[in-house]
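Risk register update: the risk that structure generation would not scale has been downgraded. Supporting records follow, first protein first.
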Amino acid sequence: MRRLFRLSSTIALAGMMATTAIPAFTAPAQAATLSGGFDVGPGGFQGNFNPLAATGGFTWLSVYFEPLVTYDEKLEKVVGQLASSYEVSPDQMTYTFKLADAKWHDGKPFTAKDAKFTIELAKNAKTGSVLAARLNAVSSAEAKDDKTLVIKLSAPSASLMDTLTKVMMLPEHALSQIPADQLAKNTWWSTAPIGTGPFKFTKYVTDQYVELAANTDYRGGKPALEKIINRYFANPAAAIAALRAGEIQFTYVDSNDLTAFNNNKDFRVIEGNSFVVNYLGFNHDSPIWKDVRIRQAVMYAINRDAIIQSLYGGAAKPANCAYIADQVVPKGIETYAYDPEKAKQLLKEAGWEQINGDKPITLLTYYTTPLAANVMAAVQAMLAQVGINVTPRAVDTPTYNSIVLNPTPDVAQFQMVYAGLQNGPDPGSINVGLNEKQIPPAGPNVARVRMPVLTAALDAALGETDAAKREARYQEVCKVMNKELPWGPLWVAKRYGVASSKLKDFVWTPAPGGGPYQAHPEKWAIAE
């Protein structure tokens, strides 16, 4: 018997995320322009227009591109976007999607051929797709007719639907003539992209803003706004100043920036769990980290509670593996409470003086906010107290990726990284950062983790299609991580956005990577 799911359908969660919808005003909304710092975070990531290569910024990208399925605004369920329903075969090897009636921004119909084309692009690593590794189980995509897409798997994958929420549909007629290896950096993404969403791309002014105009033919109805503009800022302080001056109506903020908005009726602070674990990634190609006692010493040397309280203002929770959600964290695992004397003893036992001594260790990161700089400085100071000498190096995201994703990187450029990887809503998403089969160029296992016991635990969890057994599988992943320390897990911080109280029907969720999720931008409005 085949199982039919009307979208929405509940999937396994790594945990619950907070979300806030800005309540409607009684005054009528006027057609207007909404400006904000929507993309990635304060400052944004200019040029982040290609959803195949995007690791964040989906809050913005999903305003004009759309996936087949997405999360609801609470990140609890997968709901339909460009698909209205889907069926799963009894062996969980075939997914059949029925597509909604939709048009591209140039007026051409969206069909199953476009969906097939997009899935094949996303599977092809030559396109620069960061989703290729997550779609390994997809053996084929077939357009049965204009409104029916069939995806066949080589093995059951409980994380397929989560991955598909991040696969934004792309037009075959506009992109099919571009060679796959030239697609990633093609000018189309920043000059003439077309999607199916409620707003359409009109202009990009380098380093300043992207402008979208209302898609008056949108299947969900004509948008309430005329335009949406994504502003870029040199730093978070500039974005906050623009928000307070009324130049923009929304931006991400760090926890230490909230005092300017708390108890201010002109703004609404939106708070939620990021479900992004921040970690110190030990480059396992570097010989200095081979002994687990050295990795344990790093954990014991860092006073995570002090950093959380003093720098995050308490707005984070320690992580002792890749997860913090209760259902996937087993009881009794090591908490790595701050113990610098134990760290020193472990280093002595492992022969740290002979292995590395006080030679500087490059600690690479793409986090460039003032908060991140303070965190890096605190980590540097704490490690120095036990005899580990690290030198932080903060770079922009493209530079970071060019270093860590290089198939043959210079180990000296990064012996350790300070980074983040989402672990929700589906816990399977952490696999690409830890599975030895995802070492670059195959995937984003940038720490070059080669632990057969961890890979086996991840594979077992990913292949477990019985929802009742999945949590136990991921608990096993957590146990292995906690014992073997492929990373030095630090914490999961809360995420914040601040919106003008003038916004009506505006939905923003503090989602990993910015989403995507069901936000209905066509309903967003500004009340005067």
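Supporting record for the second protein:
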Amino acid sequence: MDIAQELQKALKLHQAGQLADAADIYKNIIKAHPENADAWNLLSTVFLAAGNLELAVSLAQQATVLAPDFFVPYVNLGNALQASGQFEDAVSAFQKAIALNSENQEVFNNLASVLNALGRHDDALEACTKAITLSSNFPEAHNNMGNALAALGNFDEAVTSYRKALELRPEYSDAHYNMGAALTANGETDAAIETYSTAVVLDPKTPEKHYNLGNLYLMTGQLAEAETCYTNAIHLNSDYLDAINNLGSVVQSLGRLEDAEICFRRGLTIEPESADVHWNLSLALLQKGEYEEGWKEYEWRWKNPTFTTPWRDFEQPQWDGADLDGKTILIHAEQGIGDTLEFVRYASLVSDRGGRVIVECRPPLRRLLETVKGVETVIERGDTLPDFECHVPMMSLPGIFRTTVDSIPDQVPYLSVPEGANPDGRLGQDKAVKVGFVWAGSPTREADSLRSCKLDSFQVLFDVPGITFYSLQVGERAEELNQSDDTQNVIDLGSAFTDFADAAAAVDGLDLVLSVDTAAAHLAGALAKPVWVALSFSGGYLWMQDREDSPWYPGLRLFRQPKWGDWTSVFQRIRGELEELAAKGTREKPAGP
């Protein structure tokens, strides 16, 4: 057998992608000449390409034994170890290769890649620098340098590295993809979408690239495009749980609740214990009004690592709804202020079960929640807890009380204005219809940009005759009042609020509250004040689907966007309703639904 000739023959087949035929020749060479390191090494690369990582590692190790002074088998061993997740061993293999040949740029680049995988990004930068010093026209090294810089938070420098890689190889899909991630982290979403899209065009067979492009579309509210991307990712990988879960969230936001439920249930067949999928299923079920299963699924929130409220690990047991027989129970608020205002109504029902009720809440709510019937004590979050014998998270109460759409405790008011909280004197003197309004919620809430709008959207209302507008807006967004030239008919009340007791006093003196989906809407509803809510297209699980009223608040009306982002239609409709209200005469209170 002519070993050199057989190796050349096998290499040609190998390079042509005929791996099985090449492997047969390598095996024949090894059988005849088991000491031939080249055959062991090349056979290792065949099995690496075929995905048989364990065998690839074993074959490469044998090649290094036979040729301990030859750097190439160590490179292939490092590649096989990295592919199999044995990163530390891969580093050792690459370092051995470098010790044998410090002039090979490929080895430094491969070392940089595995160092990035280990989170050793400074060391990866050093390895990339050496690779680029040996060969500046090396797109993979510039790409790896970009990855290291991005991981270190140097996104501008990372983008520069990716651009250099793309100058050298414009069709380099991974560099486009990685640059998209860096641009996203840098807040350059339009550029990131363009870059991700290019990556997908160049490499349409990688599901992760479709998925991450979908995430960016979802982030920017381009839901139809996000749906397409997630669908493409799932087509390439039918068990792609994250894509299935996100697709469910997208179609839910598009109002297709049945499709959303199908996605989430499909996700649970793949990963039955996925807290994120259970949580999303609960939101879809509750939005559909399927409360019995929805509240049960809602309890998965505590296992969801992204849930905004941490679990309270008390020694005392969690209440299961049994008679309390005089026991002291701690109801601890969770999630947002609006959630607390909506669900504190259950405190009275807990008291009716024989409990001495303590409510823990955020400081701005303390004075107001002291007015809830059946609540003995209200404490602020962070205060020393008094003695109690059991506890319950506030938003677990609907499930404990087996709440359905038909059994919601909708008696209002269940809040009242505390003593010492007095309305602004201008409210009592105003003979016009008094409308309070809020245009923005807390910016810390996920997807706040979808539920909030700009003050400009409300300006179409401000010249309706017979109405005085009172701003209840608080926080940074309240500054928009001072930046607008079209708010002469607006009186600012929100800047004087110290807590929600003050806000309640103002709301009590109004005829109507007009708000986006914020705590102000819940406050007005709980005080039994008429409230109109300007709602984004996706709405939310507690506002349900296709309703213009709410079973939680008898005096509330919903004005939904007819399509995504269309606040103009919402406020044109509200203006028409306000004109009718004003035409009926001042002081006539607007009716609920």
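The mean pLDDT is 93. On this basis the risk owner (M.S.) recommends closing the item.
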